[in-house]
Amino acid sequence: MSWVDIEGRTLSVAGLGSSGELTLIEQRSFDDRVGFAHPLGDGCYLIGLGCCVAISAPDGVAQSTVPLERSDLLT
């Protein structure tokens, strides 16, 4: 199971322990708010960061796209 803390800028991943309890496996921190996280396999996640989309590798490094907002629409 995974979840995001939007304002806390984290992605948390948990699993079931041997006696059925939920155990935190890892927590990744980012430089911007996290809107969503979708598992891609092999520990990678597609994540929404601020106004871009990024791929977070198992080591926590995020590779992001160019900003998704069009600057001409912001005026």
Number of helices: 0
Integer average pLDDT: 86
The N- to C-terminal Cα distance equals 40 Å
The major sheet is characterized as: 4 strands, antiparallel
Shape label? elongated
Share in β-strands: over 45%
Radius of gyration: 14 Å
- What is the count of β-strands? 7
Q: What is the number of independent domains?
A: 1
Q: Would you tell me the structural class of the helices and strands?
A: mainly beta
User: Helix amount, in percent?
Assistant: under 10%
| Sheet with most strands: strand arrangement | 4-5-6-7
Description:
By secondary structure, the protein is mainly beta. The protein has one domain. It contains no helices and seven strands. It has strands at residues 2-5, 10-16, 22-29, 34-41, 44-49, 52-56, 62-64. Strands 4-5-6-7 form a four-stranded antiparallel sheet, with no helix packed on it. A three-stranded antiparallel sheet has the order 1-2-3, with no helix packed on it. The chain is elongated, with a radius of gyration of 14 Å.
Task: Provide keyphrases for this structure.
mainly beta, 75 residues, 7 strands, elongated, four-stranded antiparallel beta sheet, three-stranded antiparallel beta sheet, 0% helix
